[in-house]
Amino acid sequence: MQRIDSLNNHRVKAWKKLKTKKGRDKQEAFLIEGDHLVEEALQSNVKVMAIIVDEARDDLPFSAHDVPVVQVSKPIFRELSDTDTPQGIIAVCQKLKETPLPLKGKFLLLDEVQDPGNVGTMIRTADCAGFDAVILGKGCADLYNPKTIRSTQGSLFHLPIYQQDLTETIRRLKEHQIPVFGTALTEATDYRKIGKRSSYALLVGNEGAGVKPEFLELCDENLCIPIYGKAESLNVAVAAGILMYGLQ
């Protein structure tokens, strides 16, 4: 096991840059933190380039599958960590490779959902609901933001996630007879009237503005969830969860 004690080490400097979107985009890599996420990554098809452990840890609770393990001093680990209560383990992973978009199944489309926690939660829920892919449109929170990753709880390693132009994606899905359902608060159909579907795409939008009107016009039908209390709307991740399971 290699050990690094200097904050000026070139590898440490490169890893620190992965805490920014610019650094992640340049290096085509990202950081994950904690035993659960690291183990999920090792069991997936993602390439894990290095595992970084705090000097207080002298063993791993799982096999590293021949991935280089680097022990670092506490000051270095604090610089790399993004959590309040670190578990003492971080992995450096190569960004996920996009495969061709499947042209059947269930899809979740996100339009400018800006909160990383919401994006991660919806990816996790789509995984639980058996969806085949998640498509992030322009303006969504970065998939590799640490909060996004933590909120997925490893689900980003379980199903394909794409970052695409939603106009083209919607048109392509419709060309293959996959109905696309938008979501709106007005001039929309109660989702309970739609019935169960085996193949469809569900489009949800920005926390404040909702789905863009130009996207709603492209949809086959726009759906709503009844509001019985005084709140104006549901949190987008909660609404997405209701619809993903409600249309099963």
Structural account:
The chain folds into 2 domains: 93 residues, Ribosomal protein L30/S12 (60s Ribosomal Protein L30, Chain: A); 141 residues, SPOUT methyltransferase, trefoil knot domain (Alpha/beta knot, 3-Layer(aba) Sandwich), CATH 3.40.1280. The chain starts with a strand and ends with a helix. It has a 7-stranded parallel β-sheet with strand order 8-7-6-11-9-12-10. A 5-stranded mixed β-sheet has the order 1-4-3-5-2. The model has no long low-confidence stretch (mean pLDDT 95). By secondary structure, it is an alpha/beta fold. The longest helix has 13 residues. The protein contains 9 helices and 12 strands.
Count structural domains. Answer: 2
**Strand order across the biggest sheet?**
8-7-6-11-9-12-10
Rounded to the nearest angstrom, the radius of gyration is 20 Å
| Counted beta strands | 12
What is the percentage of strand-forming residues? 15-25%
Q: State the secondary-structure class.
A: alpha/beta
- Please describe the biggest sheet, giving its number of strands, its sense, and whether it closes into a barrel: 7 strands, parallel
CATH top level of the largest domain? Alpha Beta
Query: Quick one: CATH superfamily of the largest domain?
Result: SPOUT methyltransferase, trefoil knot domain
State the end-to-end distance: 48 Å
Number of helices: 9
CATH architect. name of the largest domain: 3-Layer(aba) Sandwich
